[in-house]
Records
---
Amino acid sequence: MRAKGIAYDTGFVRHGEISLQEFDLDVVRRDLTVIRDDLHCNAVHLVGGDPERLERAAGIAAGLGLEIWFSPYPLELTPAEVLELFTDCARRAERVRQRGAEVVFVTGVEVSIMNPGFLPGDDVGQRLGHLLGRPERMREAGEKLSAFLAEAVAVVRRHFRGRLTYACIPFENPDWDLFDIKSFELIRSAEVAGVYAESIRNVVAQGKPVAITGFGTAAWRGSGAVAPRSMEIVEHDDAGLPVRVKDGYVRDEEEQATYLREVLEIFEAEGVDGAFVYMFALGNYPHRPDDPGRDLDMASPGIVKVHDDGHWEPKAAFGAVAEVYGRI
């Protein structure tokens, strides 16, 4: 595996609200140094919706010698707004690349379900609901997305001279001729566990370098079986903010650690070019050990647990990722 990476959250923007209120560059530098030195990563997937934050984090990552996957993450934006975001970020990513860093521009993540214009529905849940049992809807969404990505790539390439990728859900089936690297959001669950390694083998065999992004699970017993939905144990308020863990779930950090160790070993065995664990930390899902009902970190795919005061501690998954990356 060439690129041993992890996703780093710079703040997701939805309807003008950002998930991380604080963005301390000293903290970012500390975290990225840990990612390089303690997790043995040589690459980082910087995700978020604020172009300035992405550029600043990329500058720090570049100084640490990390390969940077510069990843604007549009949420609930119109196609025109997504293009505007990509244009701004492409200029910023090129500035970082011109200073000598290795930069890959990620031209969106799961765009067809995370944004309007490709599927019916006012939010992700409604869009996914329209897909269930409707293969024709998948084809239609894929066709719309391919047309959009052709336009997006043309816009990005006017400003950015490095390599491009797109982080797809398999049904989206983008035109890979547009990109230098194929990136797939492939998350193992009980339903696909029997064919998971074969699915990785099949995409690697298609020729271009393959990266696996977006994989991971949360830290509760049984989460690995439902990994794509492992965050759904949390209830939200009317504003969509996480407030409490539903009854009946038990914290289990070893479940998350075992899951990540197993899938990373599959990626290495099947010859993927890069892997990016999702994710380092999810700051708006704090760990509250004395209040299990409000221990939102149980539902976080982060490999560190963030406390209400902002400090973090490694989970068992941190050690698992460090061990695998340290020996491959």
---
Amino acid sequence: MRAPVPDAPQPPPSAPRRARDLGLVIGDGPTGEHNALTDVPGIRVGHTTLIRPPRVHSGVTAIVPDGVGPGRPLPAGVFVGNGYGKLIGATQIAELGALETPVLLTSTLSAFRVADALVGWLLEQPEGAGVRSLNPVVGECNDGLLSDIRSRPVREEHVRAALESASGGPVAEGCVGGGTGLTALGFKAGIGTSSRHVSLAGTDVTLGVLVQANFGGMLRVRGRTVTPAAVGVPVVEAGPEVGSCMVVVATDAPLDARQLTRLARRAVYGLARVGAGYGHGSGDYGLALGTRPLGTPAGPAVVPDDRLDPLFAAVLDAVEESVLNSLLMATTTTGPDGDTRHPLPAAPLLALLG
């Protein structure tokens, strides 16, 4: 049995597995230092990973913008590609364009406990003093194939650990946090991330993406279909579509909530590049947030809409690369009923692509 731990360790540098390390470069835009959501200034990420084989492969991922709270909301937008999911807090974001809390990602049946734990944690923070209304934001994916989802293993202490361990720098990917028990496109998947530096209206800005990948469809890489059989991965009989993909985008570009909604829409579109099926049972959500607080009297003016194309291109590229990272960085996992899913193997993939 392994106790819950924040941020499972990364593979050693001598074992390149991320897409870019393998020469799979998406687009021509430069990445941030860590090619991760945390390249956006003020964004931190933490995981609590729960692994008790073969019964539990689950966890929670926390995306924590510095200083966010009910008294200092950040502009945000949300887009629903297919709404078979539980994105707690989505309606208030859509109505007001404001994010009041960190964003947490977890397992479907654990989402409600996680939301309650997030509220309790934030009420204890200085920014929560005197709060009488709060809109927690929690997304989820169904890890029921590889984890005992009905046990609802994610508890308050796991949420607090993820929040309090959130940091900048490299972000653990694959079978960590809210991605521990997930599958996508016929492979083991999980958490993936990527970033881009963009010149926007004469100003250099950063955009970062983090995906919680658990969706159906058929993988495409560089325009080529990649089936499990084509790369030597055991083929399994497909079950019902019960997946989702939560895509979280952050940027320090000066955008308002309406423009961030446009960015969130492109984030969901980006899943099509890797072959997303957008099936009946898939919850495909994009959530985009800006790090410039609402109501700030000083600071740069909002970017005109007709200057946003470089940011739209960047989010499409970063989503595609994030999904590939989630597949490449995962590890083989067997669930409580004997179901096994394997990650996307690097060497056979490169051989297939030529």
---
Amino acid sequence: MRWKVRAALIVAVSYVAVTVVLLGTFVSWRDRLPDPMASHFGGGGQADDVMSRAAWFWMSGLVMLLIGAMFLAMTWWGRNHGSHGRVLVSVAVAIGVALASLLTFAQAANLDAASAEEVVMPLWHLGVGAGLALVAGLLCWWITGPDSTPALEGSTATPEEPLRLGKGEIAVWTRTVGSWALDVVTALTVAVGALLAASGVWVAAVALLLSALPAAALSRLNVTVDGRGLAVAPPGLRRPAKRIGLDEVDTAGVRHVSAFADFGGWGYRVRPGASGVVMRSGQALSVRLRGGKEFVVVVDGAEEAAALLNGLVERRREEGE
């Protein structure tokens, strides 16, 4: 069985299974649950918000469906590669198990309560949910197995003619690249996190909201080629940044990159033999490093950047002779 099919099946079956358990226990316990039922719990585990039983049922199912569909899409349409694909599958299943466990524990806390206001959810449930998620993630890491995806496929990058520079001449090329996809992912992550927080599922909510921070911070990046080499960093910030010195560059060229097909998503991506900053699909600056690996960054004007980088590298080599 192809690795991608196996990985997608693991994610799909896992989310179907935990959702069936979650909604199945609700249906079997329905007559023992208060209406409305406690849906949000404070720091001490005491209920501080309520939701009708019908709303709880549909909210639980919808959250599991949306998160499961998101991870399934990432697994199927992305070319999962090396250990990163295994990490994606393991994290996807772990999040699903953690979320379904906490929602099921919340239902259990409501059992036979005379009213939602008297419901208390023991804090040890959080630890149990985290433990189940860890076991599920490790189990899926083992079941998924490694993937031997080759290096970046397709035609090799087209080298650009070096831009001739005189001795002491200074040239700088810079562009800002953004990603509407990361903007959408950030907005959806915040929305789901807020929904989980409103439902009292604090562990998953905090994890999602924290994961949205780097996505928001890195949704816009400056790409610069100058006498020091290539730099990719958030506007106005030195860190985090990806820097490649002139002494690391063999040659620079241009290639077309598909975000999902080639790198499995957006952002800073790593795969066998290649890494890159992939904010969207399109034309990319491709830098072949002296160690044999390739670094790409999808950006407008990649030909100009490659020509300047080749010119700077050539001049540096000539001056070193």
---
Amino acid sequence: MDVDAYSYAHRRAWERLDYLARRSRLTGAEADELVTLYRRTSQQLARLQSHSPDPELIAGLSALLARARGRVLGGRSDTWSEIGRFFTHRFPAALYRSWPWWAGVAAAFLLVSAGLAVWVARFDSARTVLGIPRDTGGLTERGGAFESYYSEHPQGAFAAQVWTNNAWVTAIALFTGVLILPAVYLLFMNALNLGVSAGLMADAGRLDSFFGFILPHGTLELTAIFVAGGAGLKLGWTLIDPGRLSRLEAVARQGRATATIALGLVGVLLVCGCIEGFVTPSGLPAPVRIAIGFTAEALFLLYVFGVGRRVVLARAADAPDGSDDGRQTTSSTH
């Protein structure tokens, strides 16, 4: 083996590995490149050890691989740091960037629900059109189906069931948004269910019970659905109007943001499930239960418009052109 020629042929790759191993922060692509170069250089060192008597070259490559190995293994063990960064940077930033979309979904959803509630409560024609039975006392009476729904199952099992169901609904809203109409249909059906329930309870003079059982968990739960619907529709609109980027680049970028929101909403819905399973059916006075729900909602909005806005503005200030392009970086791995 001509050691000098071999070294000359691979020196640029070794220098690149040394550069990546010494950097304090790496993008996802750079982290992948670091792992690839580390494996390739390990094979080259093994070949040199078999054919080359040059101890200086072997010692230099061994030291380089030791640095790279520490970086690769250290990055893989930094899972908790990445999880923390997700919830302190990536998730709130994605929520803040998409807030006009989910705020618009919230306004339309609540308007439709309120209109349906008034129609059902005040006009008999609504029952005919919507196929609602004339006698709904089993649903609306004290201790009826509307109230017993929250207490007929063990609290832990009910919380898990609610979490799973809500996660399924939000996932559908997120990932059918690219087609727009399925997401709109799903949101409308949820608005219809809420509006009909409110209208029937209002007609029975039980609005106090309706709000007492809906608001503790429903405030944050509905917000999560609005976020999912808004992010999904934004993804669909990006396919129609990609802006200055190519359609493929724009959809890929928005798709990453949508996936980030989907993952983060799992935690939000876990909180909703716990509130619905343990707070809503509890014996606490209705004002206390509602206050707990409003507190959870306020903390979420503070998270979005406090933490999320600060992250987005900081990235915009750090960007070379003064704008935030929404790209993410990590310490050494995805």
